Request: fold
Amino acid sequence: MLKGIYAHFDEHVETYLATVALTVFTSLVIFQVIMRYVFNSPPAWSEEIARYALVWFVYLSGSYAVKYQRHVKFNVIVDLIGKKVPFAQRIIRLFVFLLWLAFLIFMLKLSIQMVTRQFGTGQLAPGSQIPMYLVYLGLPLGLLLMSFRVLQHTTVAIIDIVKNPFAPIPPSQPEVD
Reply:
């Protein structure tokens, strides 16, 4: 039961969170347009919250991109090395994941400090009067999810090195959806 809940959460957490953020953004933009052009009375808070929802959507979608490895990457050199020395390619891939994880953890630490400072100021958004730390909270949440996904890829890379150190690796395929 617990394993099934974890599997479902692992598969869909970014999708659910990003869907909520995108739905809030879209709904508020439509509301803003209707209020502006039909009733000639646009509320300031709807545009502001829509902007914040879009920011949250971007941070959460970054984790989704990491999960499916849809982020920008350059594989030319790694693919050339992989043809001749698959073990070296696996080591390079592991090294890249570890560097990436270190960067994400560093940024997570900084973003938590930023949210903590924002919480201490008690600053409110001008139009909606929501606490600004809630706006900034999307960054550490997105970085935490990205770190988790990179940690998953790092684990898979380590297992791949242990189980198949010299097996040939197919070249990276350009992804077109």
